[in-house]
Amino acid sequence: MKPRVSLDLAGIAESLKSGAIKSVYVLTGAGASTGAGIPDFRSPGGMYDSLRPELITATKAERKRMRRDPINVVMKDMFFQNQFPYLEVRRPFILGTQQQQWKATLSHWFMRFLEEEALLKRVFTQNIDGLDYQTGISKELVTNVHGSLARVSCEGCGEEMPFDDFCAKVRTNVKDIYKTDPSAPAESSNINCPRCNRPLVKPNTVLFGSSLPTEFFEQTADLEQADLLIVAGTSLVVSPANAVVQMVPRDCVRLIVNKETVGQDLGIQYGKGATRDVWAGEISCDEAFLELIKLLGWQDKVRKIRHLLPESNQAMTKDL
């Protein structure tokens, strides 16, 4: 058995400093990117909730599907039938990613700090925003469970397209349903694959109805080495990513960084009955990781990159 860890943030910090915890794995969700101000697809008022199918290039039947359930915009069968709903809804997100409109948060930088201390073994991220890479984290340590906007390929033949080339096509070929880009075309036209010539080129995000990347299943095997699993900003309701919490050893500490308690149906225990699970409390991911940074004495790391943080994070760290 590993040495017992005090089940609070101070105990986790002490165990990291003492070497009792040597191997850290992380599972992240949307909450890790909230401080960046990235468009929200799922929450009330978000991009799915405010979807206006009548503005999208689609047939009457396709618009009816999207009204019934906006998730149809990212369904595999819909994309193979008509690529424009996906591309038109995602247009500002794709171009904003290229322009680095959103900045990596303190949560993302904490993962980089773990790598600098030779503690990080892997980040499994359910996010498609690619913000992890802005920190300079080693790409081989990041598993994009649901794919990433920052890589592009053909859904038909698999041929890759340089991200910048794809973005240039998005600007000239895909109309702006949000009416924020006056240079956008009035109507959408196909972006064809340079290899198979089918209009199936898109970011490497996993469409509903498609399988997850094989590397997710291959790389979860390493979880048996985990001393600490950090679960940050995810409701743990999407499978199979949520199964990560059950793949770590029985004596692995699990830190849940989420404003609400989650994962009870997966065996996570809170309160007096807890033996290895820690809840950071009703605070944001960035607030929780800032507290850990202070407990670990990593303030200098934050000072060096503070100018790269989103404004909300810069305000949080101004007194460091």
Estimate the global geometry from the Cα principal axes.
globular
User: Could you give the order of the helices and strands?
Assistant: HEHHHHEEEEHEHEHEEHHH
**Structural category:** alpha/beta
Helix content: 25-40%
Protein name: SIRT2 protein
Organism: Symbiodinium pilosum (Dinoflagellate)
Pfam families: SIR2
Domain Deacetylase sirtuin-type: 2-299
Task: Kindly summarize this structure in a few lines.
GO terms for molecular function: histone deacetylase activity, NAD-dependent; metal ion binding; NAD+ binding. By secondary structure, this protein is an alpha/beta fold.
Structural write-up:
- Pfam families: SIR2 (PF02146).
- This is SIRT2 protein.
- Residues 2-299 form the Deacetylase sirtuin-type domain.
- Helix content is 30%, strand content 13%.
- The chain is built from eleven helices and nine strands.
- A six-stranded parallel sheet has the order 3-2-1-7-8-9.
- It is globular and about 60 Å long.
What is the topological layout?
Blueprint: H1 9-18, E1 24-28, H2 60-68, H3 76-81, H4 84-98, H5 106-116, E2 120-125, E3 142-144, E4 147-154, E5 160-161, H6 163-173, E6 201-205, H7 214-219, E7 228-232, H8 244-247, E8 253-257, E9 277-279, H9 285-296, H10 299-305, H11 311-316
Parallel strand pairs: 1-2, 1-7, 2-3, 7-8, 8-9
Antiparallel strand pairs: 4-5, 4-6
